Each structure stands twice: as structure tokens, then as C-alpha cells.
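Lab notebook, bench 4. Continuing the backlog of folding jobs that were queued last week. Each job is logged with the same field layout so the records can be merged later without manual cleanup. Today's entry covers catechol O-methyltransferase, a 271-residue chain. Filled in by technician R.K.

JOB TYPE: sequence-to-structure
TARGET: catechol O-methyltransferase
LENGTH: 271
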Amino acid sequence: QRSPGRQRVGVGTMSPAIALAFLPLVVTLLVRYRHYFRLLVGTVLLRSLRDCLSGLRIEERAFSYVLTHALPGDPGHILTTLDHWSSHYEYLSHMGPVKGQILMRLVEEKAPACVLELGTYCGYSTLLIAQALPPGGRLLTVERDPRTATVAEKLIRLAGFDEHTVELIVGSSEEVIPCLRTQYQLSRADLVLLIHRPRCYLRDLQLLEAHDLLPAGATVLADHVLFPGAPRFLQYAKSCGRYRCRLHHTGLPDFPAIKDGIAQLTYAGPG
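JOB STATUS: finished
OUTPUT FIELD FOLLOWS
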């Protein structure tokens, strides 16, 4: 009969063997999902560290870079500067140029009199919409975080858009949507961009329907429907019978291997 001491040694000698057995699996997973790993490190770990060290959020650091490198009054140059910042310094988690071209093309094609954007963030997609608006067009953009909204407001005004063209509303979409008609004189939204939190897309789409803010023929665009994903929103849009649906397949900015998409819905009316 072996002593207890020898049993402990025997158990201990098995650990390296078990680790080596799992090593190929770990390496395979790291290689296969290396883009997601890089995204996790960049957007969570490194960003949190830089936030602590600088006392500034990433959108505030990006705006400081814009102030020293972009041309005031030139929204296109400001957008290019943000893209450069995101590619060479810190990933900004913004819409990016590929999705941006899709958005601008649709705004120019639809020529909406009024656009509603839910999720201003740093103001990147806001500038894309604003520079593609038809003459006299109006954009209302909603941002729930006051500190982020402050940065976006500065960026929008730096690009040369005044409050008559782009109005920024600070508040949660759930609270703002019911007030759009009475407080912000928005009787209808010809085009809506959902770019805030995918888990809120379905709720906010149904709020827009309930408050009769979508005219027949209105376009609803929803970003990030594949990553991180909005399955309930997509299922509702495809099954309720009130929308024609199209999916624009793209990748994430600076991470093209991570597949994402923009959903384009055309509202047929309440039915």
C-alpha cells in the first residue's frame, strides 16, 4: 500500500500531462478566434487601463486628436481623422468607412426630410448623415450618456453643423421616443438609424410604431445586427409582415474578419 505522500506526488505529476493534452485545443482556439481576442484586449483591457491613466474616455482622447489634426468645418476630413485614430492608436468602436459608405448612399438615395439617430456616441455616424442630408433636412440624434454627448456635441459643431440641422438630445431612447412629437416637433422620421444597444432595437422599433412616428415607406437601418447581434429584432422585422428586409454584410472596422451587418428595413405601414 502506497503512503499518502506518494499519492500526492503521483497526482502532482499528472498535471503537466493534462495541460499538454489540452495545449493543442487552446492553441487552435486562440488561432481561430484571434480577431475576437484582439478585439477583447483592445476594447476592454487596454481601454480601461488608458481610461484610468489618462482620466479621459476614449471618445475624449479621440476628440483631442481631432482638434489638433482635423480641419474645422470639414466633416469629411474630421471623419478621416477619426478613422486614422481608430486604425493607428485606439480602436474607437465606431461605424467606420465601409459601413459609412452604405449609410451615406442610403441617405442620399432616400433624401429624408427628417432623420432620427438613436445612439450618437462620438458623433461619427451623425456627421455621415448630416453631410448627406438634402437641403433643409433635419437630424435628431439621441445619446443617453451626458459625458459622451458633450464630446459628440463639440464634434458636430466643429464640423460646421448648427442646431437647426443637427439637434442632439441627451436621454435614454426609451424616454425620448414618446416625447419626440410634443417636445421636439418630430411628427415623422423618414429614416431611422439604430446604432446604440442591439438589445434595445426591438423595444425602440415598437415604440416608434406605437407613437406613429414611422410613415409608410420609412427606412430603418440597424447596425451590429450580426455582431454582437440582434436576433429578436431581426426575427420580428421578418415575421411581423410590416417590413421589407435586406441585410448588408460587412465586417467590423479594423477587424474585417469579424462578420457584421446592417439591416435595412422598409416600413410598409401598420397593416
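OBSERVATION: Confidence is low (pLDDT under 50) at residues 2-12.
SIGNED: R.K.
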